[in-house]
Amino acid sequence: MSSDTPTPSDGHAPRNAGVILGTLILAAAVANLNLTVANVALPDIGESFNASQLTLNLIAVGYSLGLAASVLWFGALGDRYGRKLMITIGLALAIPASFVAGVAPSAGILIVARIAGGLSAGLTYPTTLALITVLWSGQKRTHAIASWSALGTGSAVIGPLLSGLLLEYFDWGSVFLVTIPLAAIGLLLAWKFVPAHLAEADEPVDNLGGIVSALMIGALVVALNLVAAPGMFGIAIVLIVVSVVLAILFVMRQHRAANPLYELAVARRPTFWVAAVAGIIIFGSLMGVLFINQQYLQNVLDYSSLEAGAAILPAVVVMVLVAPRSAKLVHQWGSRATLLVGQSLLGLSFVAMFLLWGESTAYWIVAIPLLLMGLGIGLAQTPSSNSLTASVPIRRVGMASGTADLQRDLGGALMTSIFGALLTAGYASSMSDAIGSSGQDVTESTQNQLQMSYASASNIAKSNPQYSDQIIAAARSSFLDGDRLAYTAGFIAVIVGASLVFFFFPHRGDEARLHDQYQADDEASPTTTST
Q1: Closest Cα partner for 512 from 199, 138, 150?
Q2: For residues 146 and 153, what is the distance between their CA atoms, to the nearest angstrom?
Q3: Which residues contact 308 (CB under 8 A, 6 or more apart)?
Q4: Does 98 or 322 have the greater pLDDT score?
Q5: H helices present in 227-334, as ranges
Q6: If DSSP codes are grouped into helix, strand and coil, which group holds residue 88?
């Protein structure tokens, strides 16, 4: 590595910095696109398989589930066995996983393919930020992270637009196939340009801890999806108990392991754990809104798939424009103030969604909350990721990058699951009330179909044209009741995250002092960390 700047405070960057950063951003984009490409296609998938809202939730969250469950473990494997190896294996495996999803003959196979794709991204995605942390330093690292955050997250937000365009000409399977050429290009570039064997650890990986962490996260995400589904509450409670037990075992394992997967002393640092929790809520809110919003636009406002995908563009543009400015604000204001401003704008976006989005909302009003969301996330994502990477020793960069990725993936899985569960519960309850007040003699079987999801109600309406208008009106109203519950939950989550930052994250001067202290402690004692 060579320094490209005259002052140490600016930091250094590697040779071919632009090509390497572009390759890492492309690899991150492949993972992020797959997080959201399914959202626009959910109405079509629902009709194709006559899927329940629970099934649609699992299809949407399956990729996040695989990714969230694996990033900590796979990040540690990258630290030990080589980050270039992880990124190439991950991109190679993404190709067959995307293909199977694109040609899946059933909803079950589609869910499995989505989870497999998430596991492949678990190999790739933590590697991208880990390599940025190793190859860049100082302000150059902050700006590289800002570009990675803006373009990587922006690709997730652009996923609905790309999906909408494809659905104008092809069936729903095309939205999963589109990432195959991108993964192939990323694989070739990574093989040629990404450096190998950089600051790798020589200690063995805590594989047992990795397995426990994957099972713990997987059980929690599945439980949150099942909790509001009819007849699934008991199973959901069992899975939550299993997740809690596994969490306890994971902590015990990390205390006893000679080379823990997750150094709890590092995790207790306020610049680490507060940034991690805040990031989970910030990125999770984005994924949750994208999941609900695409269904709202198509089901309630009757947008085409292309129009629904294009509707998210204001958030993308603002996010990409604001992120570079966010890197400057981190240096001027500190991470705490920048995070709080971003979180405040994100909270306002949920209030606007609740108050403004209805059955006949004009697009310029739909765009207001999306602009607020893009602005808030554009400001908040850089300080969150940068604070994590600055709080750990280089030998543990996989832990920081894994946690930064976990923010997006666990946050996305949790918030999408929570939003989906609330949407399911609110929709079913409202539809039940509508059926009861309709005065129609509805069989139990038909009532169950109507309460499954909007897509299921739409299929019933097509089969019963004499009642079509009444059914669709009830389904739209019921959907709105469900999504308002989700927006309320999102606002509460953002308030909790902002409160943690306000009360526990250090001010600018203290933040810089703590990071210097952490670095000195880690250099003095490479196997012991300070809190």
Answers
A1: 138
A2: 10
A3: 40, 160, 164, 294, 297, 298
A4: 98
A5: 233-256, 264-267, 270-295, 305-310, 313-333
A6: helix
Residue 295 corresponds to which tokens in the numbers above?
């269904």
- Token pair for 73: 């473990």
184-204 pLDDT tens trace = 999 999 898 888 766 666 677
Q: Rounded to 5 degrees, what are φ and ψ at 442?
A: -105, 130
* Confidence at residue 153, expressed as pLDDT on a 0 to 100 scale: 66
CA distances from 296 to 62, 64, 304, 360 (A): 20, 21, 11, 11
Q: What is the pLDDT of residues 444-496, one digit of tens each?
A: 777 777 877 777 788 788 888 888 888 888 888 888 888 899 999 999 999 99
Per the structure block, which two tokens stand in for 96? 């067959």
Give the Cβ contact number of residue 144 at 10 Å.
Answer: 26
Of residues 373 and 440, more confidence is placed in 373
CB atoms within 10 A of CB 526: 12
- Using CA of residue 436, residue 437, residue 439, residue 442, what is the dihedral sign? negative
Per the CB < 8 A criterion, the answer to whether 284 and 414 are in contact is: yes
> Which residues are within 8 A (CB) of 182 and not within 5 positions of it... i.e. 6 or more apart?
26, 29, 30, 33
Encoded amino acid at 119, one letter: L
In this structure, the chain runs to a length of 531
Number of helical H runs and strand E runs in the chain: 20, 0
Q: Can you tell me the distance from the alpha carbon of 158 to that of 294, in angstroms, rounded to the nearest whole number?
A: 12
pLDDT band at 528 (very low <50, low <70, confident <90, very high): very low
Q: Give the residue carrying structure tokens 């971003």.
A: 342
Domain residue extents for the chain: 14-524
Identify the pLDDT of residue 526. 52
- Token couple for 521: 């402690």
Per-position b or e across 205-222, b if 16+ CB within 10 A of its CB: bbeebbebbbbbbbbbbb
Residue 100, amino acid: V
Distances (CA, A) of 262 to 209, 221, 239, 265: 9, 20, 23, 9
Which one of 3.40.640.10, 2.102.10.10, 3.40.1350.10, 1.20.1250.20 gives the CATH number of domain 14-524?
1.20.1250.20
Cut 0.90: pTM above it: no
Question: Where do we find the tokens 């996923």?
Answer: 159
SS3 call for 200: coil
Residue 324 has a CB neighbour count (10 Å cut-off) of 15
Pairwise CA distance, residues 311 & 371, whole Å: 11
Q: State the residue for tokens 């937000």.
A: 157
Question: What are the tokens at 495?
Answer: 């308030």
What local confidence, expressed as pLDDT, does residue 531 receive? Answer: 36
Q: Which two tokens stand for residue 386?
A: 């940068």
Query: 13 and 136 in contact (C-beta within 8 Å)?
Result: yes
